[in-house]
């Protein structure tokens, strides 16, 4: 950008022309996901041009701290040399080759490495494209398993999920979903799901409080499993933290309790770690923290370090054995994706896992997680802050109109979005979940940058709270 009193160079002038063209083409042609389009068309689009470490840069050279890891997937920062080099090396070999009737070294090596890292007992890996497909694969595998195991139970066709659940946007995943603003419109297309209350301690659906509740929400899960004994194919959960519901942090022991109930009622457990896997909660996989091995582990987002679309569904020998047969047996899992196990994605994933080892990413997390949790406590007690919660390197600040009554702001007010807009002016790129501010920076973030992030959001909250108070007074 040119400075005041200085003629722009030809390159600067060209950049400005290109920016105007791109913004025009964006409004004319590009349909953005989860974006209110009238609001989008009323503003100048933010167009990202490059990244470096924990920062992103727009086409005009402005720098932003990537506070949501480019939608919860960036692990080691942008343009990490190890991952960049692995992708370039793979490009010199082959960019894509199918796994239907053939194989290739990167997918084989990645499957082996994931099995080594996963909770014990998960020995089989099915690759797909993204988090939604990873969960969809698990649903279909679970359904087919019960129909063709040695002693078939074809009546097991139902799935149990939590209120506020979000597992993706394919029809099966939306059937599991419990976020009305995303899913209600599609109800006529969906299969019926058993719905248990989420263990949301700030807004307990049972009207109870920790620790006296004794995790009564698990009793509701058992009530449903007992009422539908022999009908449930699988229980599906986002372990430890429910993402799109507002970063709901589950109480200790809840995941372990689900595993116990699944064993008691002989049903399967699907763990959707698309958002929480690969170190995000402080361990490589969230299930580790309660020594739980699910029957299916669904992975995506951080699997490639945030570089390329790739997903994996891991399962057990018990499940896999029921799909083994020749062509005439009809036991094949007839599901697949053109780019499933893509060599470039697999190479990126292997490189990302190597970075975990070389840079001791997991070992560095406890200090960062503690620092994030401590700094987030500075929000507690501030105007319009209802709740503060964190797990690992995930943080959330829930904003409410009335703190005592826990009354949310009217949706039309878009209070969380206003704070994100104010933070962007301070060089921090955030995205709220309604009026829940989400903190999920790359795990490579240093302590001083965590402070930069928190300071910017605190200042933005003060600014927007003052404007809200003034508007209310007037």
Keywords:
globular; 15 helices; seven-stranded mixed beta sheet; Aspartate Aminotransferase, domain 2; Aspartate Aminotransferase, domain 1; alpha/beta; 474 residues; four-stranded mixed beta sheet
Quick gist of this model?
With 474 residues, this protein is of the alpha/beta class.
Protein model, in words:
- The protein is an alpha/beta fold and 474 residues long.
- It has two domains: 46-76 and 361-473, Aspartate Aminotransferase, domain 1 (Alpha-Beta Complex); 82-358, Type I PLP-dependent aspartate aminotransferase-like (Major domain) (Aspartate Aminotransferase, domain 2).
- Helix content is 38%, strand content 15%.
- The chain contains 15 helices and 16 strands.
- The chain has helices at 10-29, 37-41, 69-72, 81-91, 105-117, 131-148, 171-176, 180-183, 217-227, 254-264, 317-321, 343-358, 361-376, 415-425, 447-473; strands at 48-52, 55-58, 63-66, 122-128, 158-162, 194-196, 232-237, 241-242, 248-249, 268-272, 296-299, 311-316, 385-391, 394-399, 428-429, 436-439.
- The chain has a seven-stranded mixed beta sheet, sandwiched between helices. It has a four-stranded mixed beta sheet with strand order 1-2-3-15. Strands 13-14-16 form a three-stranded antiparallel beta sheet.
- It is globular, with a radius of gyration of 23 Å.
- The protein starts with 9 loop residues before the first helix and ends with a helix.
- Residues 1-14 have low confidence and may be disordered.
């Amino acid at each position: 950008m040119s400075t005041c009193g200085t003629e722009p160079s030809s390159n600067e002038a060209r950049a400005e022309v290109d920016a105007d063209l791109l913004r025009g083409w964006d409004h004319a042609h590009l349909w953005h996901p989860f974006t209110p389009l009238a609001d989008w068309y009323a503003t100048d689009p933010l167009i990202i041009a490059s990244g470096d470490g924990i920062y992103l840069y727009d086409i005009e050279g402005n720098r932003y701290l990537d506070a949501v890891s480019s939608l919860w997937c960036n692990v080691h920062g942008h343009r990490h040399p190890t991952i960049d080099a692995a992708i370039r090396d793979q490009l010199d070999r082959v960019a894509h080759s199918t796994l239907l009737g053939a194989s290739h070294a990167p997918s084989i090596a990645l499957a082996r490495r994931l099995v080594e890292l996963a909770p014990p007992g998960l020995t089989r890996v099915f690759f797909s494209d993204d988090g939604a497909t990873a969960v969809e694969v698990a649903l279909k595998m679970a359904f087919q398993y019960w129909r063709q195991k040695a002693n078939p139970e074809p009546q097991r066709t139902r799935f149990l999920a939590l209120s506020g659940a979000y597992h993706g946007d394919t029809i099966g995943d939306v059937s599991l979903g419990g976020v009305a603003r995303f899913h209600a419109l599609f109800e006529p297309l969906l299969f019926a799901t058993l719905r248990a209350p989420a263990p949301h301690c700030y807004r307990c659906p049972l009207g109870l409080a920790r620790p006296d509740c004794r995790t009564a929400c698990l009793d509701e899960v058992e009530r449903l499993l007992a009422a539908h004994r022999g009908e449930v194919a699988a229980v599906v959960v986002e372990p430890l933290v429910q993402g799109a519901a507002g970063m709901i942090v589950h109480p200790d022991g809840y995941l372990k309790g689900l595993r116990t109930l699944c064993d008691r009622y002989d049903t399967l457990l699907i763990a959707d770690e698309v958002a929480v896997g690969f170190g995000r909660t402080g361990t490589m996989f969230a299930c580790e923290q309660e020594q739980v091995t699910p029957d299916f582990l669904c992975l995506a987002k951080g699997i490639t370090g945030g570089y390329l679309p790739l997903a994996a569904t891991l399962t057990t020998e018990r499940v896999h054995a029921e799909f083994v047969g020749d062509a005439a047996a009809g036991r094949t899992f007839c599901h697949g994706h053109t780019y499933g196990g893509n060599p470039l994605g697999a190479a990126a994933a292997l490189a990302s896992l190597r970075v975990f080892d070389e840079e001791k990413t997991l070992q560095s997390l406890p200090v960062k997680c503690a620092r994030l949790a401590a700094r987030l406590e500075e929000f507690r007690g501030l105007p319009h802050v209802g709740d503060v919660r964190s797990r690992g390197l995930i943080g959330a600040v829930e904003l409410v109109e009335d703190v005592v009554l826990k009354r949310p702001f009217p949706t039309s007010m878009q209070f969380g979005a206003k704070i994100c807009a104010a933070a962007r002016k301070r060089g921090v790129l955030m995205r709220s979940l309604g009026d829940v501010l989400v903190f999920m920076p790359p795990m490579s973030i240093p302590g001083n940058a965590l402070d930069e992030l928190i300071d910017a959001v605190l200042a933005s909250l003060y600014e927007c709270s003052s404007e809200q108070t003034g508007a209310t007074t007037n």
